[in-house]
Amino acid sequence: MPAGKVTREHAKRFILMKQGLYGTHRFSGKTGIVEFIDQAGCIQFDPVDVCGKNHELVLQSRIKGFRKKQLEELLYTDRKLVELYDKNMCILRVDDWPYFEKNRMKSITSPGKGRELDKIAVEILEEIKTRGPLCSSDLDYKGKIDWFWAPATTARAVLDLLYYNGSLIVHHRNNTRKYFDLASSNISSELFEQGDPNKTETERFEWHVLRRINSLGMLWNKASDAFLGIPDMKATQRNRAFDGLLSRGRVKEIRVGEIDKEMYIDAGDEELLYNAGISGLESNRTEFIAPLDNMLWDRNLVREVFGFDYKWEIYTPQKDRKYGYYTVPVLHKGDFAGRIEIFRRRNTGEPYINDFWPEEGLKETSSLHDSIGKCLARLGEMQKSKNS
To answer: Tell me, what CATH number does 171's domain have?
Structure first.
C-alpha cells in the first residue's frame, strides 16, 4: 500500500498506536518494557523527581501495571537494559552497546586537565577492579575542577569520563547516588568487544535516523531535537540518510493534512498506518505524558500534527512561566486535553493535583475528571512500588 496522504486525525492515531498509547495496552510487565524500548530505541533518563522521574512516567503511561522494581531489575540485575548516552542520557537495550562505539570514541574531556585526569583514571579503574562497584564518595581524591554544569569533585569528574568512554557502567543506584563498575564485568564479552556493526558513516547515519523515526513514530527531515546526540551529523548527512533510507525502501514518505513538509515512517509500519485510518476507531485511554517523552522530542511536529503547543517550563524563570514548574501533558481519548501539575504530599508521598489547565475549547466533563482521577491513582501505585 502506498503511504500517500493522510489526515491529521489519521496521523494522530498512527503516532499514538505506534507509541502504545491508543486503545488497550500493547505492553505489559518486564517483557513489555523491553519490547517498548526495543521499538523506541531508548527512553530519556532524567533524575528530577516531582511526580515521578521522566523515564518512569514514560513507562507508566505505556506498560500495564508498571512498577519501578521491574525497571530496576532489568537495569541492575538482569542487565538487559543499560544507562547510556544516546539522544541525551538514556536507557536502552544492552544489545545496542556496539552501535555506540562512535559516541564512546568522542567521549568528553576537560580542557587542560587531560594528563592529570588520565593518571587518576588508571588508579580508579584499579580500585574498582579490586574493591568492586564504587561511588564518588568512596574515592579519596581532594579538590574540585570546572566541569560541565558546575564545579565537580575530581572523583566525580573522572568517573564521568570513564563512564562516557565505556570503561564503566552504572552498576546500581542508591536513590540518586550512582555506583560504577567495570563495563567489561557486566556486559558479555561478545557485545563488549564487538565493533560498530555499521561499517561506514553512511550506514551509521541511516541507522540513527531510522532509530529516531521509530522513537517518535513519524518524523520529518528538518532540524529537530529528535536528532540530538548523533555524532557528526549535520544537515548534509541527515539529508543523505533520509535519501538513502527512502531509495532502499526502508522508510515511506507521507503527507499529513496541509502540513507543507513531508513526513517519514518506518516502511514496516505501513500496515499500522492503514489500521490507524480505519473509521470508527476510538480510545478511552487517559495518560499523563512525561515532559521528555519520546513523542514530544519534536515539539514543532507535535504542534503541527496535534495542535498542542507544549513547553517544559522547569528551566523557565518563575516570573516568565505560563503554567507551572513541572507540568505534564494529559492525553485523553486520543488527543491532548491540557496539562496538569502534580505534586506529592510530604508526609505520605501521595500525588495530588495542584492545578489543571484544559486546552482552549475543551469541555470539562465528569468523565474526563474521573479518568484523570484514575490516572492519578495509578501514578500513586507506581510511586509506592519501589519494593514490589
So the answer is: 1.10.10
| pLDDT at 12 (0 to 100) | 97
Number of domains the chain contains: 2
Q: Is residue 34 part of a domain?
A: no
- The answer to whether residue 374 is domain-embedded is yes
Q: Which is it for the CA torsion 344, 345, 347, 349, positive or negative?
A: negative
Is residue 171 a part of any domain in this protein? yes
Domain closes at, from 170, 193, 216: 193
Q: Which domain holds residue 291?
A: 286-383
Cα dihedral 157, 161, 163, 167 sign:
negative
pTM for the model: 0.94
- How far apart, in Å, are the Cα atoms of 217 and each of 28, 39, 169, 325? 20, 10, 29, 28
Answer yes or no: is 104 within a domain.
yes
* Listed residues 174, 193, 212: the one ending a domain: 193
pLDDT tens column, 60-82: 999 999 999 999 999 999 999 99
Give the position of cell 528538518: 222
